[in-house]
Amino acid sequence: MNRRLFIKNSTTAAGAIAVGSQLSQSAFGQVPDAEPTFRRPKVILPVPTPSLQTQHVQPGVPESKLTREATGLLREFSTPLLFNHSHRAFFWANEFGRQSGEKFDVELLFICAAFHDLGLTKKFSSESDRFEVDSANAVRQFLEHHGVPNMRIQTAWDAISLHTTPGIAAYKPIEVELLYNGVALDSLGIGYETFPADVRDKVVAQYPRVNFKEDIAKAFFDGFSHKPESTVYTCNEDICSHFIRGYRHSNFYDQVTNSPFPNS
């Protein structure tokens, strides 16, 4: 949601609560354990079924209908750069999960890795949402189509939407944290020194990092250059600062101090 829509929606909700409307009363009356109600984008970008020829998983990826189709979508609508990055992120995340000793949903983890950057591609990029949200909305539609339970869908949505946001994933279901850590290792090298060298070398040999540092930055920018406002207050704004001449980085402190509210 862009800032303009956020202000509009927040104002509407705040007004409703202030006057004790039906909206606020119904919110208080909700059952805590009820199934989550997903809030959907106004424009839904369809997620097609990939061709059978592309639906085959790579060695080491769990085999299922969902993982085959997710791999097929990567092959058909992504790029070699993102295909390799997504697979490396999965294998890093999977190893982190193995090291943790905790149970985790390896099938869902792969699907999250496969979808996490699809919002950078034209097929799945909206006009105004963050690319992470576009990717998360795509995985939600994909999993709903296959009748996956809401709890798993919400975990996948959270994992993908939060994969560039530090400080939150560790307090979500473990799949959310594993994806975050897998992406952070592959993109930023966080955890490189302590990651098993044999696993690292094997995965990189299978999914090479050819000119990755420069090309991934360009892929990011290509994915949201038509909507730089969607990067405000995120790490992706640094990409805009690099590629857009004269780009003015947003300043949260200035926005707070310049608020139209008078000091009391």
TrEMBL record:
Pfam families: HD. Gene3D superfamilies: Hypothetical protein af1432. InterPro entries: HD/PDEase_dom (IPR003607), HD_domain (IPR006674). Residues 83-172 form the HD domain. This is HD domain-containing protein. It comes from Pararobbsia alpina.
